[in-house]
Amino acid sequence: MDDQRGFCIDVRGHKSKAKINSGLQAHTCYSYQGSIAVDQGFDSLELNENKFYLPSFDVCMEAASNTPSATLLLSRCEDEILQKFNWASNGRIYPFSNNELCLTIAQGKSRDGGGGSPVHLIRNLSLEFCSDTLQSFQMWGARSEL
Question: Is residue 123 within 8 Å of 64, Cβ to Cβ?
Fold first, then answer.
């Protein structure tokens, strides 16, 4: 991909003013302010419970559907199947509702974001069929504070 800093799951918008009603995107990872930004900071304990919970906004990641090209939304955390994801040991994130799909960063050229130096980059995020050819767009890892 075109950003050596890597891409993170990110709320559209800017930090604490992010727009939770606009869903999720892939965005340059950053924590140069001394901690992981609130719009990229998922609760690690909830990840162990198969939830991608953003405590600063009190919402969870949710698949719009369990079909290819489904977008990722944010909504009030409930015990719903579209809010449950398996982060497998192979680095892929699968929705419980369809383990043939993987959380996938869009291919192609990134869009410029609104800040950072160098400029942050943005890509769409969706569920797509898991594929060896898309492996570099479907592998995820955790990062520490700095």
Answer: no
